[in-house]
Amino acid sequence: MAGPWDKVGQVLPAGSEIHEPGEHWRLPWAPAVVEKDSVFYVFYAVTIARTRKSAIGVATCTNLDAPHTWVDHGAIIYTGEGPNADAYPFNVSNAIDPSVLIDPQSSIPILQYGSFFQGIFQVPLADDLLSLRNRNPPFSATHIADDNAAAIKAKSYSVGAHPIEGSALSYHEPYYYVYYAHGVCCQLAKIADTIPLADVYEIRIGRSKNLTGPYVDKNGVGLLNGGGSVFLASQGNVFAPGGPSVTKNSSGTDIFYYHYLDRNGDLEDKHALLGWKPLTYGMDGWPQING
Q1: Using an 8 Å Cβ cutoff, are 204 and 182 in contact?
Q2: Residue 179: beta bridge partners?
Q3: Which residue in 31, 87, 163, 226 has the most C-beta neighbors within 10 A?
Q4: Which residues, in sequence order, are CB contacts of 3 under 8 Å at separation 6+?
Q5: What is the pLDDT of residues 41-52, one digit of tens each?
Q6: Each residue of 70-102: pLDDT tens digit?
């Protein structure tokens, strides 16, 4: 994992098939990659910023060294508009920032998603990971986390209420862990000198022994009640960490990875970096970054 890394191409460089050609929100982003039965799945989002007009889609391939072979299967869920966007939870949530875990207990694939609005949700997927497990409403869904904080506003910046997004779901026996980003993510180059660190992107965490929760933080406060313990905040040259996720290396160690800005750089969004660290778990079961 230490590299060096070589660029081999892009996934869906012409955009997603979810929307008509020419629409400015066709380009997929916020990817999450899962492997199952030697097939690679990339879950992605398309959206119009600051709205719930969003969708999560999926593409597949069997060879990561052949990026031209990705097949786009289109949308799994819509919010704001589109099929079933008027059914719960899609009528209150925002379909971006997908994370997928194949539940080690039940083998059922779980899609976790959400940004601002009413927070983070889970919905089970079909075994082929290409659609919802329930194809028609009412849908099986679980509300996982919601920050009831009001909008973050100041003279130099403003973001909406419920400022959580970019979540990830992982499992380390006997707990499921939810990591998510909180605060202001973007255009920090313009406002970094005026924004309190408490409002800047940081990664928080909660856990539960049950997949569907309730998830609580280190103080026992539920994530649906504004709880969430800080897991990684700005420190040293790491500024505004977000986009958390967990994978395993070849020896089975959990690896925590995330994006961040270099505090000593220009803080432009386009210069975000990828960081990763091994995780260890304390006697209390909470993970911590190793190194």
Answers
A1: yes
A2: 168, 205
A3: 163
A4: none
A5: 999 999 887 788
A6: 999 999 999 998 999 999 999 999 999 999 999
Q: Taking phi first (over 0 means left), then psi (-120 to 50 degrees means alpha), and beta for anything else, what does residue 187 get?
A: left
Nearest Cα neighbor of 46 from 71, 14, 69, 70 is 14
pTM of the predicted protein model? 0.94
Q: What is the pLDDT of residue 163?
A: 84
Query: pLDDT (tens digit, 9 = 90+) per residue, 111-146?
Result: 999 998 889 999 999 999 999 999 899 999 999 999
Cα–Cα distances (Å) from 247 to 1, 32, 43, 169, 251, in that order, read 11, 11, 15, 10, 11
Asked whether the predicted pLDDT for residue 286 surpasses 90, the reply is yes
Q: What is the pLDDT of residue 158?
A: 67
Give the total residue count for the chain.
291
Spatial separation of the C-alpha atoms in residues 184 and 155, rounded to whole Å: 14
Cβ(231)–Cβ(204) under 8 Å? yes
Q: How far apart are CA 73 and CA 131, in angstroms?
A: 9
Given a cut of 90, is residue 256 above it in pLDDT?
yes
Q: Give the residue among 81, 74, 67 at the shortest CA–CA distance from 26.
A: 74
Strands lying side by side in the sheet with 238-248 = 238-248, 254-262, 273-281, 287-289
For residue 220, give every residue at least 6 positions away whose Cβ sits within 8 Å of its Cβ, in sequence order, or none.
227
